[in-house]
Amino acid sequence: MTKIHLTINGQSLEGERGQTILQIAKENGIYIPTLCQDDKLESYGSCGMCIVEVEGNNKLVRSCSTLAEDDMKVNTDSWRINQSRTIALELFISNHTGDCKAPCSLTCPDNLDIQGYVGLCANEEYDAALRLIKEDLPLPACIGRICPHPCQTDCRRALLDDEIEINYLKRFVADRDLSSGQPYRPAQKPRTGKHAAIVGGGPSGLSAAYFLLREGHDVTVYDENPEFGGMLRYGIPAYRLPNNIISQEVQLIADMGATLVSNIRIGQDLSLAHLREKFDAVYIAVGMWKSIALGIPGEELQGVYGGIDFLYEFACGRPPQIGKKVAVIGGGNTAMDAARTAVRMGAEVTVLYRRTRADMPAEEIEIIEAEEEGIEFLFCVSPAELFGSKGRLHSITLQNMCAIAPTGPGERSKIEPIEGAFTKLQLDSLI
After folding, report:
1. I need a labelling partner for 59 at 20 to 30 A (CA). Which of 78, 94, 142, 159 fits?
2. Given this model, what pLDDT does residue 327 score?
3. What's the mean pLDDT in 156-185?
4. Residue 99, Cβ density class (10 Å: 0-12 exposed, 13-18 middle, ≥19 buried)
5. Rounded Cα gap, residues 50 and 55, in angstroms
């Protein structure tokens, strides 16, 4: 290759013909900013950040795409260059919507401004933190008690010492607001004259009401239960989410102007056609209240309950007669809720899970607290058949499973039945 000699910032340098100014500068430790250059790609020069002055040329040139020449004199730093780079950068970010988001916010299912309210809490600006949270989350006191907080798993503070207790901060400012005597009520736009019906008074329906009210629309919420809250009230045990917290946050939405109508079942007491005729919009938020069937023989026996059905009856003050020995099938949060509720009813509880403990989708704290409450766990078993006498459950046969270790990150164990290997348990009830 033919050698060339040039000067950059008064420094005599040697390069090869065919190299760009930027390449020779980088080889000699001279910094020229660039946003679009990559050694693996063909030079494009779109960002305009790498511009330099070349003696004899009145125009600034892009160093990433300008070939160096023999005896060339280059300057990389001047007022004119810096002004041009500033303009290029401003144009580059002119459509950028704001600061890049932290990993905690990116993993938040509700896309909350987590770093924003954590920073406000750090400055003891708790009212401002609550207002920021309620821009996107209508029920922070409820969610602050049950959220699985994936944000904390990705908290960057853990790289230094410990993750920030993001969820507890949300719960703290929400509880502080509820106990203040004058809880925060967000601003609402002028009335639009539009009226929306919402079918279902659970978290989805209540959230829809909250945001519609803020936009100035009238809202009527219908629910078939005597109390509002949906799964918050009837699917999550009160030891985790007290009813008074639910009632307070529901009341805040009522105070914003929502009309709450309970004990109304759409399709029975009111028709969907009637709602469509009477209202400008109808939002269906009935939730998913049916437990998943096991699909095994004996499931029709008395003493076999779906997890959602069991928790609902308990919340309504009609706890089933479950007896002394109870098994719960599953490894998620609903299974933990059902198992811990059964313990509070005086039962001896065993959780049956077809994979390993490490594979359980329930929150770790829920599993630990279940263990502390005396709940037994039986892993690598899958329900095969239920047996009863006079229509009442008395035992379960479990297929023993072999767990095969996961091969990649984020995967759970694969399972295979062990041929001819079964376990039998005597039971009074199965959830």
Report:
1. 94
2. 98
3. 94
4. exposed
5. 16
